[in-house]
Amino acid sequence: MALEHAILVSLLEQPGSGYELARRFERSIGRFWTATHQQIYHVLKRMETDGWVTAVEIGQGGRPDKRSWSVAAPGRDVLTAWLRAPVQPEAVRHELAVKIRGAAFDDAGGRAALITEVERYRATHEDTLDRYLTGERRDFPDAGTLDTGQRLQHVVLRGGIAYERMVLDWLDDVLATLRGLDR
C-alpha cells in the first residue's frame, strides 16, 4: 500500500485540509499506516499534480487561507483499481523476536537486559491498546447504529485491538520463559 491510497481513503471518508488529514492519521488511520505531516503535504501536492485530488481555498478571517482537499475522478479510479487488486500477505520482520532467539547465546546478564527491554516493549503495546480502547469508546459508543463506513472503520480498529492483545499475551509468555531460564 502506498501513502496515496491511505490519503484517498481518508479524503473519501471526509474531505479536509492537510492539517485535518494529518490529525486523522494521528487519531485513526495511524493505527495501521503512519505518515508525518510533511509526508502527507508532499504526497498531496504530487496527487494534485497527477489530478487525483483537488483543493479549494477557504478563507479563515484574519488567518491564512487553508486548502480543503477532496478526491477527483482520476483519484477515485486509482483507488478503485487498488481496492480490487489482490493483497499479498506481508512479510513479518520482528527485531525483538530475533533478539529473543539470540538470548540462547548470551549469559544471564544479557538475558536480564533483554527482560528489561521486553518489559519496555510490552509497556508501549499496553499504551497502544489503551489508546485503541479509548478511541473505540469515544468513536463507536453504540455499535448498533453505525453506518457502513463506520462499521468498516470499527472492524479495522477491532483488528488492531485483537493484535495488541495477542502481542501482550505473547510478551507475557516471553517474560515468563526468560525469567524461568535461570532458575
TrEMBL record:
InterPro entries named among the record's database cross-references: Tscrpt_reg_PadR_C, Tscrpt_reg_PadR_N, WH-like_DNA-bd_sf, WH_DNA-bd_sf
SUPFAM superfamilies per UniProt: Winged helix' DNA-binding domain (SSF46785)
Span of domain Transcription regulator PadR N-terminal: 7-80
A Pfam family matched in the record: PadR
Domain Transcription regulator PadR C-terminal: 92-179
Record carries keyword DNA-binding: yes
TM spans (from-to): none
Gene3D superfamilies: 6.10.140.190, Winged helix-like DNA-binding domain superfamily/Winged helix DNA-binding domain
Molecular function (Gene Ontology), one example: DNA binding
Keywords: DNA-binding
UniProt name for this protein: DNA-binding PadR family transcriptional regulator
